[in-house]
Amino acid sequence: MKPAAFELHAPEAVDDVVALLAEHGDEVKVLAGGQSLVPMLALRLTRFEHLVDVNRVPALAGVEAHGGELRIGATTRHRAVEQSDEVARAVPLLARATANVGHFQIRNRGTLGGAVAHADPAAEQPAVAVALDAVMEIASRGSTREVPAGDFFQGTWTTALEPHELLTAVRFPVWSGRCGAAVEEVARRAGDFALVGAVCAIALGDGGVERAAIALFGVGDTPVRASEAEAVLTQGGDAAEAAARAVDTIDPIDDLHASAAYRTKVAGVVVRRAIERAKEEATGA
Amino acid sequence: MTTAARFVGQSVRRKEDPRLLAGQGRYADDVSLPGMLHVAFLRSHVAAGTIRSIDTSAAAALPGVRAVYTAADMNDVSGPIHASAGGAPPFGPPLLLLAADDVRFVGDPIAMVVATSRYIAEDACDLIDVDIEPTDAVATVEAALADGAPLVHPELGTNALAQLAMPDPELQEILDNAAHVVTRTFAMARTTNVPMEGRGIVATYDEYGGELRVWPSTQSPGELKAFASRVTGVGEHQVRIEFGDVGGGFGQKMYPTREEAGVVLAAKLLRAPVKWIEDRRENLIAANQARHDVATLTMAVDAEGHFQALVFDLIEGVGSYPPGGGTAAGGMLVMLMMTGPYRIAKTGFSCTTVFTNTCGKAPFRGPWAIETIAREQMVDEVAREIGMDPIELRRRNVIHQSDLPYAMTSGMLYDIVTPEETLEQAVEILDRDAFRAEQATARADGRLLGVGVSGSIEPSAVGMGPYATEQAIVRIDVSGKVEVLMGTGSHGHSLETTIPQVVAEHLGCDIDDVVLRQGGDAPYGPGTGGSRSAVIAGGAAQTAATTLREKIVSVAAHLLEAAPEDLEVADSRVSVRGTPSRALTFAELAGTAYLNAAMMPPGLEAGLEASSRFSPPSPFTWSNATHVCTCEVDPETGVVTLLRYIVSEDCGVMINPMVVEGQIAGGVAQGIGGALYEEMAYDDDGNPLATTFLDYLIPTASEVPVLEYGHVETPSNSLGGYKGMGEGGAIVSPAAVANAVNDALALVGAHVAQFPITPTRVLDAIEVAASRT
Amino acid sequence: MPDRLIELRVNGESHRVRVEDRTTLADALRDECHLTGTHLACEHGVCGACTVIVDGDAVRSCLMFAVQAVGSEVTTIEGITPGDGSLSPVQEAFREAHGLQCGFCTPGFVVSLTAYLDEHPDPTDDDLRDALSGNLCRCTGYQGIVKAARLAVDAMKVDAMNAGAA
Q1: Do the Cβ atoms of A104 and C134 come within 8 Å?
Q2: Which of B21, B493, B668 sits opposite C91 (nearest CB)?
Q3: Could you write out the DSSP letters of every residue in A60-124?
Q4: pLDDT tens, B84-93?
Q5: Which of B74, B287, B616, B771 is paired with B12 by a 20 to 30 Å CA distance?
Q6: What pLDDT sits at residue B84?
Q7: Which long-range contacts (CB under 8 A, 24 or more apart) does A115-118 make?
């Protein structure tokens, strides 16, 4: 189980990365933490003539607060996100979701940008990005653009990124006030990809739920934002009602590990539990 | 002339550990020889098809490629592939080294590339142009049995072999008149062994010396030696097995396979060292697989809950090329063992062996386990049917000491077993009343807890046929240290510790002075498997050590001018009882025996060596166990969490209790895997669906609860009182887990009978139950 | 096929080795540095047998290419082993608790746990199980491994106290 041959480039500046991407077109792939790409290369499920290793680009890593947002560089490792006081304070949902990614050895190497750009529909951080209306910062030769998370994920392992583009950072809005966050997922074993999961952030005001953000993962080919369920909560509905609304819109698949019917049913359970836990935390805040 | 028990029975720390912990073990992949070449196999990507053409020219032209072999190069030279111990399989077409005219499962090897690195060998596989015309495949037992199903082996004219039918006219009468007759079907999923080290082998041939040297990953160096000789034509006396560390096997490495044949043959053809290390995808799709049984049981029970009759109809899927031909699962052993630890006077049995276009079935820790997996679930089903607690029902039917010797309907005789004692011990550790109270409290909160019991008698240490013997040569060297040569193939079994424990105990020396050597110059043995090593290898080691001690005492008696009965042996020293200063060390005795033979007692041969080829006194040495498992089922997600796991085991005299408990734990974890997580699934076209560790799910540390052990220690009638126990953990546990889950599900009227018990299956069962009410 | 001469820092020593860009760190350690204690059991990042420490962090060496480790400090099982015939506290605990049988997964467990305990000197039992669940073992049922982890924690605490007292 050995990868086919490629040439590995290890530039140290974003400009050099995007120049290489532009030069090699469809024959090139960005290598970040490699925790998903390298297995696919080893299994020869995919192959590229060129890999651009972005681990040696200092500008791509790090966490910084920017007004009402937290900007996390694409090569910031899961471990750094998970352990960052700043993330825990500003975007607790992301910190908790990141702790659920694989095992600690994977989090030591895997990156936020890699997980987001890989866009596995059962992954946690894409769902957090979608739920919180994160913004993807994208660079290519001579230009940059931004894509809202809601438009970024287009299918299984498919995003709005063009082959010549590089995801440079993800910006998450920072919530304040009486907030709670929860991640609920069901997996076959500890550390496995979720069969189905939900992320939820809640902000409480005087009149109850003021703001809610909910997204599901493992239930389709992209993370699914549960906007109607959010509306149920902000209009005074309870968790069960919101959960019922959340599963209305999903269309999950059958696979070896769970049936579509199972995923639909348990999606409602994890949404309800996530809401309840997030609310409980917000109430105590 | 006695010594206190100082080693046998102690949890001696393992001699093999320091090197393995330091990363200094020597597994097959750690062998590196000058000029070594690397192998990759091109395998079929379809489950059934006709090979129209193979073009290897581009692969052969790739720089670094030394050879590309196809069936035409190999099959006539090697001859059909089969193990040596059992001879050629009785059923099925001959198994050829590489697929020749057609392919019969995904993973069937078609071509073999030998190159300067594994990377290049895989590149070359990508360049082989093979044209296969797919034909219809049968992936499941049901599809294979359907009318007009495509034939896996057209040579046979059928996909199904009916075997071992055992009609009994009195049976029907019992079934017609019993107070309760219950029929249920239980399906055990296809699973696979998953040793952490896959198969692997390095071989080199020296044409001037005439020697074929093989560095294997095998459970059986003796088997591999005979096999490599047969495949290559090199005399067995010139095949040398360099046995090193082996990263697990659990049955998968008992018999050498096609790929290993290819490597030894390529080494001879190319006159170069050749290495093949199976990668994980190959191991999952093309190393042998296991289980895959469907058992329909009918049980007749009287009004008081006494078992009257059991009918066991087994369908076993054996894939395309099972190493044993038709009876790979041990259908014979299922028939022998189907009544387990209970008194059941009448039985019926049938077995249908079904070929499918999938990887072949081979031994996996308790190949006959379905007898326990199905029967123990059946006992719980009967208990629910007649409204009795399953523990109570077991008590009513379990074999008591007063029943012994007890003849099963198969004619086999239980002599020394303690199924009632292990049942009671396990139930006591559980505290059943406390659990039932906890279950009721939890139920009131909407939580589902359950408890499951499972019991079995394990037919260890087969004392018949090719597996009946094992030889030990025990030798004191010139400096007084002890070497033991055996044909075993320890691959995690701790034999490098337990055999020296037995030898040190019976020879009278320190364990640090004893080393076990396997492979190489060791005598032939059928290998390590079948829970045979403690009884048969232990018996051989003990006999040889005892014989050698008698010789040492004779030599010492002569030199010390003392009567043999006045001498005692301890700490590698023979001394006169009561006069410790009158003594000779093993080193001094060896000095006489090897370097000053004239001083030996008259009539005694020089040297200090003894040999014994041991065979146990009974066809089987029975051990037995009862497992108890408790669990919680989340009724909303179907997730099962195991809470407690209790094992009460009687494996006779324990050479090393720590090692015994380690063997139990490993088996239990594999059984938990089979019950809840593992499935080597195929789609309807015969494509394997679990080709990586992302899809084939073995338990992790988070899935296996803390095990609680109880031991009943009843010596066997074999030398030392040992009983084999390597397989019981895996045999007994699946039903314990299933029974616990179903005890919890019974609270909501639900039941699951298909392994693995996935969250989907649990929720489906709950839904079915809810729709009934 | 592009290959290049690189320098790897492993267990405090420099190794100049020739690798292809696609050569994994695991293969380079085993085949070029001749450090065969790092085992390959899945080559797709799930089993943990190939775990090594790169700049202080436990990672899968099958999921890194050797060229990516240039400039980093790599520690393998051979680097954790004292080398004088004695064992590290984690290794000693594995031996004491029968935390290994066939030994193939063992270096990965020892390396992972050593790195983990370095950062988490006082874990709960659940923390330990969670930390251990990134490595697969097929022999032990994890009983001896979980026990060994607890023994190692306790032994290292005693060592730390003694070091503090001295």
Answers
A1: yes
A2: B21
A3: G--EEEETTEEEEETT-BHHHHHH-HHHHHH-HHHHHHHHTSS-HHHHTT-BHHHHHHHT-TT-H
A4: 877 777 777 8
A5: B616
A6: 83
A7: A115/A36, A115/A78, A116/A74, A116/A152, A116/A159, A116/A167, A116/A170, A117/A30, A117/A32, A117/A74, A117/A159, A117/A161, A117/A167, A118/A36, A118/A37, A118/A157
For the stretch B466-508, pLDDT in tens is: 899 999 999 999 999 999 999 999 999 999 999 999 999 999 9
Q: Which chains does chain A touch, 3 or more C-beta pairs < 8 A?
A: B, C
CB of A195 within 8 Å of any CB in chain B? yes
By C-alpha distance, the chain A residue nearest B276 is A1
Q: At what angle do helices B221-232 and B258-270 cross, to 10 degrees?
A: 50
List subunits contacting chain C, requiring 3 or more Cβ pairs under 8 Å.
A, B
SS3 for C9?
Answer: strand
| Residues A106, C22: C-beta atoms closer than 8 Å | no
- pTM of the complete model: 0.97
For residue A97, pLDDT beyond 60: yes
- Provide the mean pLDDT of chain B: 95
Average pLDDT for residues C48-61, to the nearest whole number?
98
What pLDDT score was predicted for residue B654?
Answer: 98
Q: What is the CA radius of gyration of chain A?
A: 19
Q: What is the pLDDT of residues B168-219, one digit of tens each?
A: 789 999 999 999 999 999 999 999 999 999 999 999 999 999 999 999 999 9
* Percent helix, percent strand, percent coil in chain B, to nearest 5: 35, 25, 40
Q: Would you state the structure tokens that stand for residue C17, as one six-digit string?
A: 């080795």
Answer whether residue B691 shows pLDDT above 70: yes
In one-letter notation, the amino acid at residue A180 is: G
- Interface check for C107 against chain A (CB to CB < 8 A): the answer is no
- Mutation target among A105, A189, A192 for the C interface, most CBs of C within 10 A: A105
The whole-angstrom separation of Cα A182 and Cα A92 is 9
- A 211-250 residues inside an 8 A Cβ radius of C: none
